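Sequence in, structure out.
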Amino acid sequence: MRTLLFILAIASLTACSSKKLSREQASEIIKKAYPRTIDWDVFTADPQVAAKALSTQLEQDGYITIQRKQTLSEMGNPFISFTEKSKPYLLATPEKDKAYKIQKVKLAEQHFNSITGMQLLSNDKKAIVEYTVVYKNVTPFVPISTLKIEPELKRKAYFALYDDGWRIVEKPDMDFLVQ
């Protein structure tokens, strides 16, 4: 009887200390990178950007004002100005960008949704995890960008087992995929 209990105790300890990546572990690690803010640079002094903005509802809805004509002395001044209503969507813009009349705006947030698949490699010491993200808090500024809002986006994360646990490998090389 003691032998059986000893074997069961060893088996449960071995199972608990297993280093195999689980879906739950992968989810927890990936979730740390989300939500992500998706932003866009609006070149306020660019006449082409102003023309694109004219084709949206941003001015009619009160988020921006667009100067339609400029005199020779006004050349280089912004065509697009942001109103009080747009302030919740304006992001911090580096001074260097401000000098070039660029304003960062928030488009949406990406949120982790679910894991769709896992592939274990190299004796369970590496893994490729496929997962989906969804857009939330979509702003009125999406039409001025090239962002296409899709119901779900598929992503991949590459994991490696280190002495302190599983980590995401940011830029895996070709050796990573060799089993």
